[in-house]
Here is the input.
Amino acid sequence: MAKLELVPLRSWDDFFPGSERFAKPDFADMTRWNNRVVSNLLYYQTNYLVLAIAVFFIVGFLNPLGMFTAMVVVSAVFLGSVWAGENRAVIKNFKRQNPTVFVIAVMVASYMLISLLGSVMTFMTAITLPLTLIVAHASFRLRNMKNKLENKMEGAGLKRSPMGIFLEALGQQEESLQKIQTFLEGKVKE
Here is the structure.
């Protein structure tokens, strides 16, 4: 297994080049759309991290207690969902078959718990705003050749990144990358 590597920060021109490198995703082909999102999440992960941290700090500065509450609840729900997905076969199968529904269920559970604790607006601003921006960018940004090559290396196990580990925990990888990884793991065991 390769060591953990942080992906380099992509230039602003690469991250947000202009309207010609953005296109509406094909909602009829969910596999292709999912592959685009996963590919962009892996390639631009450091840019997304910087974006999320910037929003996180701004909101945290404005409402520190609400931010802490939201952070604890979302972390607990996420860790619980990862644990359940690994230790309960029914949940693991559901997560593989319905990844979008599973992520939405985790977000709804987080929202409901946070609303009980009174930090809904902090959650909506600090957690949902960066996630919405990230998912929108990952959905609309067209992949380039360098993006595809980097993702193939990640999927083949030649590189490991924080986003790759996160997506693996959620059961989200490009279909072709999963096939390559399964093939290589089988060959290693032989």
